[in-house]
């Protein structure tokens, strides 16, 4: 028998006066998965997450985290780690003091040295928060979120401001959390991160899900693309190739391998060079750009 979902949202509605920010939203996050909640600006994802995290009460609908209301902080809060988009640390506290404070507030046990070592902040333990760089503050945000290895971790734009090495180190730490059984909910504007790492994605638009599924399921909703250019003296290309405004040709296909093979065969038969040839499957950013045009 499958385990109950870590997060269970059923027909969630959130309104601010006459504005309906979230509309009958339902989804589940399973134990151990990385679920990415993405959306256009104003889509309602922040309001949704604030409700799941227990910071906001739903206008209607039900939200359960570990089978309990997220408003039941004594039962739920110590099992969750939250990395907000912006730090709320006191600038006068040191890095060590900030981590200890979060540990005390969340009632989780850990060693400050272990957590700071995991995010390469051990040498900054005695430094005041006000003296940290932007990237160091983001690493401190992550350190406090994962202090005590919570069962559920919310990561809101976790890699903003991080250099490549710090970004890789953060994702390595997330991988270790997941190996230990943690569930992760991610929001990010770096769509390639969601494409590479998410088990499932909920793509929001105007307060509701535009689509939900695995990366493969989402990208299969749009055709793949083959783009190329031809010399002016070249023969007329196959009929499925449409000329674009820049003079190049575009083939949209749900069978990329077959149509690319056919196009290459046509070029071989006619001794034609396919200039600037590009071919590839639909990416998550293509799905994202299609929002609102369906």
Automatic annotation (TrEMBL):
Keywords assigned: Antibiotic resistance, ATP-binding, Nucleotide-binding, Transport
Q: Does the keyword Nucleus apply?
A: no
Ranges where the ABC transporter domain occurs: 7-231
Q: What is its main location?
A: membrane
Q: Which GO terms describe its molecular function?
A: ATP binding
In the bilayer, the protein is annotated as: Peripheral membrane protein
Q: What InterPro entries is this protein classified in?
A: AAA+_ATPase, ABC_transporter-like_ATP-bd, ABC_transporter-like_CS, ABC_transporter_ATP-binding, P-loop_NTPase
Q: Where in the cell is it found?
A: Cell membrane
The record ties this protein, via SUPFAM superfamilies, to:
P-loop containing nucleoside triphosphate hydrolases
PANTHER family from the entry? ABC TRANSPORTER ATP-BINDING PROTEIN
Q: What name is this protein filed under? A: ABC transporter ATP-binding protein
Q: Organism source for this protein?
A: Streptomonospora wellingtoniae
Q: What is the lineage of its organism?
A: Bacteria, Bacillati, Actinomycetota, Actinomycetes, Streptosporangiales
